[in-house]
Write a structure and sequence with these properties.
Elements (H helix, E strand, L loop, with lengths): L4 E7 L8 E7 L2 E7 L12 H4 L1 H5 L9 E3 L8 E3 L2 H18 L5 E5 L6 H11 L4 E2 L7 H11 L6 E2 L11 E5 L3 H4 L1 E2 L2 E2 H10 L2 E5 L5 H4 L3 E3 L6 H14 L5 H7 E2 L1 H8 L4 H8 L3 H13 L3 E5 L9 H14 L9 E2 L26 H4 L6 H10 L4 H24 L3 H12 L11 H10 L7 E5 L3 H4 L3 H10 L2 E6 L11 E4 L8 E3 L6 E5 L11 H11 L11 H9 L6 H7 L1 E3 L7 H4 L8 E2 L3 H5 L15 H5 L6 E5 L15 H6 L4 E5 H5 L8 E6 L2 E10 L6 E4 L39 E7 L8
Helix pairs in contact: 3-22, 4-22, 5-14, 9-12, 9-13, 9-14, 12-13, 16-17, 17-18, 19-21
Bound molecules: ligand MGD (2 copies), iron/sulfur cluster and molybdenum atom (MO).
Amino acid sequence: MNKMKEIVPSTCRMCHGGCQVNVHLEEGRVVKVTGNPESVVSKGYLCPKGAASPELLYHPDRLTHPLRRIGARGENKWERISWEEAIQEIVEKLAHIKQTVGPQYFALLHGTTRPYVDMASRFCNAYGTPNYVNVAHNCMGPRTMASVFTIGSMVAPVPDVYEPGGITPKCIVLWGSNVTEIGSAQGMNAGIMKRALIAAEKVIVIDPRRTKEAGRSSQWLQIMPGSDGALALAMIHVIIAEDLIDHEFVRDYTVGYSELLAHVGEYSPEWAEKITGVSAEQIRLAARTYASVRPAAIYWGSAIDASKCSFQTARAIMILRAITGNIDVPGGDIIPVPVTNVKLKSQFVNSEITGKLLLPIQNHRLAVDSIAAKKQSEFLSGKGMASTFKFLNVLQKKAYPLLTKLSAKKTPAAQLKTLSKLRTSKYPLCPVTHPPTFWKSITANDPYRVQALWIMGSNPLVTMTDPLETEKALKLVDFVVVSDFFLTPTAHYADIVLPASMWLEQDDVVNTFEQWCVTNRKKVAQIGETRDDRDVLIEIARKLKLEKAFPWENYRAFVDEMLEPANLDFDSFSNKQIIQEKMRYLKYREQGFNTPSKKVELFSTTLLDMNISPVPVYRAAVSSGAVVQSRDKYPLLLTSGAKSMMFFHSEGRQIKSLRKNNPDPILEINHSAAASRGINDGDWVYIETPACRVKMKARITDAVLPEVVSAAHGWWFPETPDYGWQKSNINMLFTADNFDPDVGSECLRSVFCEVYSAMPGAWEG
Ligand SMILES: Nc1nc2c(c(=O)[nH]1)N[C@H]1C(S)=C(S)[C@@H](COP(=O)(O)OP(=O)(O)OC[C@H]3O[C@@H](n4cnc5c(=O)[nH]c(N)nc54)[C@H](O)[C@@H]3O)O[C@H]1N2
Ligand SMILES: Nc1nc2c(c(=O)[nH]1)N[C@H]1C(S)=C(S)[C@@H](COP(=O)(O)OP(=O)(O)OC[C@H]3O[C@@H](n4cnc5c(=O)[nH]c(N)nc54)[C@H](O)[C@@H]3O)O[C@H]1N2
Ligand code: SF4
Ligand SMILES: [Mo]
């Protein structure tokens, strides 16, 4: 008998990539996911994670119903409860907190962008808590801020590789991104990028590791981890000194060129050579190639973000794009045109969706990373009365006019400046509550300790720095909810665990990174009682009487609203599969740039007003003082977290087809460094910093320099009873005490360490 077969077009969500795929069903069961060759987004591309989607869907360890903790925190003892009970408990707790101590005593934390992020942030703002915590400080936040303050766009420019104008860049710089070997980064598709790289005349790779693309590039700059800011400034220096700028663009569309000129004089290639390890000649060659082979595009990765000089480095790279006239030209770094006939939910193009203005103005100041919150808590504890009175006075006088301005001011830079003044955050450009400060606020009860925490889609014990501090904090919070696909090391510390649905169980209009199109995601399965996070958020919000901010009965109603302007219902949209917007280049010629000056701001007075350097500077991205002092004990420079094709951060370790291809946590170490330490290929080794040591398997290679090692991140072992989250967790080696002063990012790419054998060949678990 023939089996009932069906193919449903949808959009993968095993990572940010948004690949359009075909979901193959047999007798209603998902048997396979394949790439969709018709797709303009992904042209048939599918990575192993996408192919493993059915394995995740049907995994025997998946959470299928809500759980309530019955043992001690971390003990992993649970009872099954119903959704009604779980939701009632959460609603009661949140209502009680709001009434008794104030909404700021609740925090919501998530990791990288996932489908629920817009609703999660809206939830926090509507409920009244400024403690919306996520990893933007280390990921995309610095790059987004650089885009906002330089060209006035929340959507950072991307290389013109999807061919809306029929051409791709002649020169591509891959700067701290290994997108073609991981599947996708921030929506950029590996397959599409690969085609563009093959077509390009020149490819420059800036990476401390010889990646595949570095191996086949025209020029590979093997940079010392964390020193990208120095390289970018030296490249600006060369381009100006050798008169390779685009004169017309600089004259007509930028402000602050003379200040930039004076500023970069000292940043010669010889200066940068000492910091970056890249020879002055190589720097000159790269700058000349980039400035003269046009159109050129830079694809930047998260290596730019996770340092002590993240925002400034990203600013310098934005300026490189501008002074060479490569912004928004066909084949350059373009700003996609968002779809117009759909109500978009991406926070990058619809600032309304996150509900920032729903947050009562005085609450902005109550975030745990806010200087004002500290003053208030001193006031409540009887200390610092005088200054607190002054602060309350200022708040009354100034805050309300500020909020009015915030909504009236059109440029995102002006809005962010206002918000930053309201928030008085220690890190003025950190767009969310700063995670390390958040965890410290709990352990130190300073300025106060939140009473409830909802962790949605994050495994901070593994992916955030200083996990022991995080564990301590998780034990101290009165009420912890975790929403996830699986019981993770972090979920073990929850009071309530909620089972989340994955992409094959969701209807959606996909819109986060690729702004120029929206694609369909179609629900084809339902496992146990899993629920869409957004439905849960909406239900809880409405039970907390927040219907004004959440007028939708459920998420599906919101999706219908998204499609209203296009006059489509969800089924017709699903049949269509995609709505695209036509690309328009050189938009700035008609409308200027959306900065206060309407031009590209090489010098930014807005930044100056915020006490941030108005022109990009370089700050050594080394780790904390204690480590530097013991440099002879820790001679190697560790960069961590180059992503693996098989895993999305800490996910996928329980998925057989993926784990088979990457069974162990890998440390890449150079031959000579390994030989002098008696380490053989495949040995388990300890990696040690003053903070801690963890074990990984050595891969001996000439792809990194003898003084550099590169370690994977996100490791835990779901196959062991305690999940072994401390054994190979690279974040155990980072103390959370060394931040970029502008945005609060951390030095994930540059900490000094030592590596030694952990009993060759023996892995004692
Ligand atoms: N398969 C898979 N795909 C993913 C993810 C995943 O976990 N797995 N995560 C997603 C997320 S959230 C992100 S942020 C992106 C990240 O993806 P990318 O932006 O591509 O960044 P990474 O993979 O972190 O690092 C890319 C390269 O930076 C190099 N690198 C390390 N240190 C430095 C340095 O100091 N300077 C320079 N120039 N290069 C350095 C590494 O060797 C690596 O080759 O990927 C997304 N896509
Ligand atoms: N040392 C070091 N650390 C790093 C990095 C590095 O390079 N080096 N990279 C950093 C970067 S770039 C990022 S973005 C962060 C990422 O950090 P996170 O985004 O916090 O990633 P994970 O810790 O893997 O947590 C994701 C959890 O959410 C679950 N999940 C996935 N999708 C959903 C969903 O739709 N709903 C719900 N409820 N749960 C879901 C997964 O099962 C998993 O347990 O890690 C950072 N950590
Ligand atoms: S790159 Fe990302 S979106 Fe594309 S198939 Fe792989 S996991 Fe899915
Ligand atoms: Mo990220």
